[in-house]
Amino acid sequence: MDNNPDYSAPPLPTSSADTPETDVAREAAGRSRRAFIVGGLAALAGVGGWRWLLTRPADEGTPWPFRRVLDANGRLSQAYFRETRLAPTFPKSMATSRQNGNIGLKESFVTADWRMRVQAYAPAGAPARVQEFTLADIKALPRVDMTTELKCIEGWSIKVNWVGARFSDFLEKYPLATANGREARYVSVVTPDKAYYVGLDLSNAVHPQTLLCYEMNGQPLTSPHGAPLRLVIPLKYGIKHLKRIGTIAFVDERPADFWAEQGYDWDSGH
Amino acid sequence: MKRLVEKHPLAIRWFHWLNFPILTLMIWSGLLIYWANDVYRIGWGSTTLFKFFPDGFYKALGMPQKLAQGMNWHFALMWLFLLNGLLYVGYTLVSGEWRHLLPDRNSFREAILVTLHDLGLRKGAPPVVKYNGAQKIAYTAVVLMGVGSLLTGLAIYKPVQFAWLTKLLGGYEWAGAEHFALTIGYVLFFVVHIAQVTRAGWNNFRSMVAGFQIVDAQHPVVGDPVAGAPGRPTSPTLPA
């Protein structure tokens, strides 16, 4: 057993005018009153703060204080973020499939006509350029085969085998993200029907596991999985794995992001 | 004759009471996240004893699908949870309060006796000290659970950057399940804690708000009570 000087503190001094018994009672009542009033005020302040938070104007689908915290968390994560940190990979035998989400895929679509339109980085003064690519152009890049975990923001995850070209290899061969010695900060990826769109930091897009993917689990991509070309970015939740790439643009301003507009974290992963 | 004795320092009281709304909001926002894909259950094979949560639970609450809102609260409040936890642990270390909280060799045997007494299976009252063995174990465990929640939370929040941690915890799905299990642990802790506080009564509850307790002057507050010593209370208040 312990000897605690606080706990075994001597009785509080008593005044000679009162009997000790009533003195203790008065002291106890006074201290209790003060403590409960302070506690009550603190609780009221807490409730007030809670109401204040919930009534702030929204910044992209969430009260702005939450957006500020999410973005601060993102900056902190970016500071710790290293391209060399790879998402875990798994044996191909563990790969499975699950179809989820068809926003951006609802329009009738002819794969043979597909072209990927890329809007090059054009900082002030540089000319705007748009270049088109065929699937053969992407397949001509080094082929990467990997099995990573696809993590849904809802909480479930599956292992999927992906085959495609590294986004970084694409940019190495076609330096569309740089102009006048400068580099774009963001990448916008949009479906052909413009219904689904994601924004990425360029540093995330050039992560060695970020793929322009054309095969899944040993088969060419099927339409529900985003044929003919989709984005695979194991750094992020599934919501950033845009299916059926239509347009890519390299820009300086944070581009529109479907789920960030609904109140979700811009980073949604790492 | 009665006297006032100091029991809980001001800092401990603030950390304790701040933790209450913080943890409540963490659990609430965690539920909003969990409800997006409610897979956890207690059972084996196709037998389910309990599903988190039964349909009636969702019906009663109107089942809000507010995943983004839940995540935003969770990723903001985690900082307060971390800060409050660090300050609490730091304070107990600096002030020496940790000596009351850390279980020792005797605590486990004592905890069994206390539990038997609480369940009405043992007559003899446990010794009157600031925290009995069961309390020491519970209060230390809940701090360790907090550390566990932070680690498992980090593993599922940034599973690529902290891939080593996620792997150590058994992978992404396991880390998520562990995070959830710890939450259930807090809820169970809360239920027992409230029951014990209710049992222990007003004098004990007030000590966590105002800091002091009123005791009989002859009441041996510290140290081992001497068996059969005069003035030893027959039904001491169990501090909770």
From TrEMBL, chain A:
Residues 1-23 are annotated as: Disordered. The chain crosses the membrane at residues 35-53. SUPFAM superfamilies: Oxidoreductase molybdopterin-binding domain (SSF56524). Residues 111-259 form the Oxidoreductase molybdopterin-binding domain. It comes from the Bacteria. Keywords: Membrane, Transmembrane, Transmembrane helix. This is Molybdopterin-binding oxidoreductase. It comes from Hymenobacter nivis. The lineage of its organism: Bacteria, Pseudomonadati, Bacteroidota, Cytophagia, Cytophagales.
From TrEMBL, chain B:
GO terms for biological process: respiratory electron transport chain. It is a multi-pass membrane protein. InterPro entries: Cyt_b561_bac/Ni-Hgenase (IPR011577), Di-haem_cyt_TM (IPR016174), Hydrogenase_cytochrome (IPR051542). Its main location: membrane. It is found in: Cell membrane. Coiled coil: none annotated. Pfam families: Ni_hydr_CYTB. One of its GO terms (molecular function) is electron transfer activity. GO terms for cellular component: plasma membrane. The keyword Transferase does not apply. The chain crosses the membrane at residues 12-36, 73-94, 137-157, 177-198. Keywords: Cell membrane, Membrane, Transmembrane, Transmembrane helix. Residues 8-211 form the Cytochrome b561 bacterial/Ni-hydrogenase domain. This is Thiosulfate reductase.
